[in-house]
Amino acid sequence: MTEMMLDIRNLKVSIPTDRGMLNAVRGVDLQIAKGETLCLVGESGCGKSLTATSIMGLLPRYAKVTSDRFEMAGQDLTTKTDAKLAKLRGRDVAMIFQDPTSALNPTLTIGRQLTEGVMRHEKLSRKEADARAIEMLDRVGIANPAARLTQYPHGFSGGQRQRIMIASALMGRPRLLIADEPTTALDVTIQAQILALLGELQADLGLSLLLITHDLGVVAAIANDVAVMYAGRIAERAPAVDLFGTPRHPYTKGLLAAIPVPGVTPRGSELPAIPGRVPGLIGTMQGCAFRDRCAIAGPECAHDPVPRISAGQGQFVECVKAAEVVA
Amino acid sequence: MSVPIPMIRMTDIRKTYHLRRGMFAPTEELVAVNDLSLEVAEGETLGLVGESGCGKSTAVSIMLGLLQPDRGEVEIAGQKIGAMPVADRVRLIQPVFQNPNASLNPVKRIQTLVGQPLRLHGGTNVDVEVKRMLDLVGLPSRLADAYPGELSGGQRQRVAIARALILGPRVLICDEPTSALDVSVQAQIINLLLSLKKELGLTMVFVSHNLAVVEHLADHVAVMYLGQKIEEATTDALFADACHPYTRALLAATLLPDPQAGLPEQKLGAAAADPFAARQGCLFAPRCPDMRQSCVEGPQELRKLRESLVICERAV
Predict the structure, then answer these.
(1) Within the 190-229 window of chain B, which residues sit less than 8 Å (CB to CB) from chain A?
(2) What is the dihedral sign for C-alpha B253, B254, B257, B260?
(3) What is the complex's ipTM, to 2 decimals?
(4) Looking at residues A190-203, what average pLDDT do you find?
(5) What are phi and psi of A52, to 5 degrees?
(6) Which CATH superfamily is A4-107+152-261+271-326 part of?
């Protein structure tokens, strides 16, 4: 069996609000093998970022997190103390955020920001840490890295800042890299470069990569495996080729159809949009969360629990009518 | 035979900003838009594409009469926009912006927000008109009493469109109207814009960095780079046979939902566009995979090449 980098079962994240409990993540199972790239796709508010944040342990104190299993590289995280967790996470997992401009501190030099983590976690000296920073900046394609350590973030372009963020994430030599919409704030030509860089690093360093995005184009470009999230649950998980070729959840199918493809979608034709909107996540939910927007929904879709149809190798779809979608 | 007057005509527009790059740095001139000329015929849709900082938004603000160009003229329906009273201008041309969360006042009701332009410009029957507009953009009239915060992103963008249309403009300028929206909702708004264009005979300028969306909506496309129009062609010609290396790089970088396609090969260098760089020769030369010495020397002029108007002297 392949070794799991991350194995999460039945993850639930709830956030108390003044209108009641906001159940943002409602039982997510997430497994990432070592060296694998998994894309977590979904619309805003589907819980994809909260899922990632819970892996990092960066959720606010008032968020209620439960899970049946939470293992990272074979270690059970649910039984560890906070100090132990911080140590584990600081070493094994790193995260890249969407907007490099707001994720970098404008008043500290690049060098300070890159070395802070390793000086604390690995007790490296200033000199050793600087050497590591230079190595990583060079790795992500920043020219003349030694001279640039003393510069501030404003001296870099958006694409360069995202490279610096990636270098900073690599500083602790993590085994799992989580990238939350890493190219959304970038121009398309730069986006392709950053995605290429992530793919390259992943192959060279044997990283597991969890990439969170709403852009199915990005998914198609770099994922081995895709998990589609809707209203706090994973609606479908499949290898990228299968997911794009034969989507088995009506939501996945709807998303793919809604994107105009130059040369394929007739110009000016009406796009098959998914009607309605994402449901609110306050309180409990009965049956399939997508059924109000689903063209093939029937009375059986209101029943709990929504059956999970597996197809081996971690591939599954949560839809009573999955057979009808493929047909 | 008389040639019809284009609905939008921009002639040799130039706009510069004077900026400092640091607290004590000297001011430098940033050329946001340089010698930009565009024409859009009535009922047509122009797609305006380019990276952030290429001058799309400045060009749009000038088109709307919200910003004075340093030189050049903008005519909407044959009338100079600079000389036009605001009351006339707003009935001719209206904007829809990227982020409806920012463009709608959160403490006003939808009814008030949509009706405001009409009320300001002395319209009558405001309530009836608001109802008609909500209907036109596909919003249930019960939402008239709601606040923007109670609406979804797609519904808010519909409100912004309703408000832009209530004065009955002939031109709609859409600045990235779908980029803040989710994929499933983006398709709804694209469909709405398409049907409005048909129903009302609107002339549209659609600014976007998403080339797939532009291809779907636009009749012709202008590509901008560092304030300059570097290529313009019909949508068919541009997507089938782009002439400028930058346009080709943009097209190649558009990621399609097809796992067989893989990552596009990057031929552009790691350097980003520098808006402060000296404006000599070809502005794209520092990133161009095809650059030659002659590119950085002589002045570059737009010329006709096959179906395109292109600024690259080496394009064949």
Answers:
(1) 190-191, 194-195, 209, 211-213, 215-217
(2) negative
(3) 0.84
(4) 88
(5) -65, -45
(6) P-loop containing nucleotide triphosphate hydrolases (3.40.50.300)
